């Protein structure tokens, strides 16, 4: 159980690190679109494990999604200026995100979702802490700034706890689709 906990934290940290790094090369909306490819990876992995079925509707949906991604990345234009480093980082993040969502879904069967989340995020926190050595974050300069920073942290914390309970109730793949 400790090994699975460590891996879930490592996958969480790796996904977050690749997302942050990808933001240096791509715009935010493109980062989010590429990250949601994790749902496609998750369904194929679950089908490979025999835990999900892939039917014609799923194949058509995946094909439409991938076609849409090529349009968003402007791959049909001969002079597309997409950053392949950014795309690569986000595809790696999608793989890690699919892996962590799968692990979370498996662990929820016998462990409290809040515990699963806390363990993964504590490990991810310590793994991502050295990123502050790269460049210290800019702290708010006013009370309003601090207020919004605290509100943001609170909403993120509450949303994360809700996310883990949603994975426990819906399962990893259904949660991934609604995300």
Describe what this molecule looks like in 3D.
With 179 residues, the chain is an all-alpha fold. Helices cover 76% and strands 0% of the residues. It is built from 9 helices and no strands. The longest helix is centred in the last third of the chain and has 28 residues. The two termini are 27 Å apart. The mean pLDDT is 86.
Features:
single chain; 179 residues; mainly alpha; 9 helices
Q: What average pLDDT do the residues reach? A: 86
The end-to-end distance, rounded to whole angstroms, is 27 Å
By DSSP (H or I, 4+ residues per run), the number of helices equals 9
Low-confidence stretches: none
Major sheet summary line: none
The structural class is mainly alpha
Summarize this entry quickly.
With 179 residues, the chain is mainly alpha-helical.
Topology (elements, then pairings):
Layout: H1 2-22, H2 28-35, H3 38-48, H4 56-72, H5 84-107, H6 113-128, H7 131-134, H8 143-170, H9 172-178
Helix pairs in contact: 1-5, 1-6, 3-5, 3-9, 6-8, 8-9
């Amino acid at each position: 159980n400790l090994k699975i906990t460590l891996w879930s934290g490592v996958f969480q940290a790796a996904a977050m690190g690749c997302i942050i790094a990808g933001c240096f090369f791509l715009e935010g909306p493109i980062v989010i679109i590429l990250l949601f490819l994790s749902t496609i990876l998750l369904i194929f992995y679950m089908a490979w494990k025999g835990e999900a079925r892939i039917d014609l509707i799923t194949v058509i949906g995946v094909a439409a999604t991938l076609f849409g991604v090529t349009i968003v990345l402007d791959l049909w234009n001969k002079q597309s200026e997409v950053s392949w480093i950014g795309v690569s980082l986000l595809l790696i993040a999608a793989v890690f995100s699919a892996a962590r969502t799968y692990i979370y879904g498996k662990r929820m069967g016998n462990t409290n979702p809040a515990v699963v989340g806390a363990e993964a995020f504590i490990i991810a926190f310590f793994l991502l802490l050295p990123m502050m050595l790269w460049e210290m974050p800019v702290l708010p300069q006013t009370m309003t700034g601090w207020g919004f920073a605290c509100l943001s942290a609170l909403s993120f914390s509450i949303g994360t706890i809700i996310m883990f309970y949603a994975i426990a109730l819906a399962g990893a793949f259904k949660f991934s689709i609604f995300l």
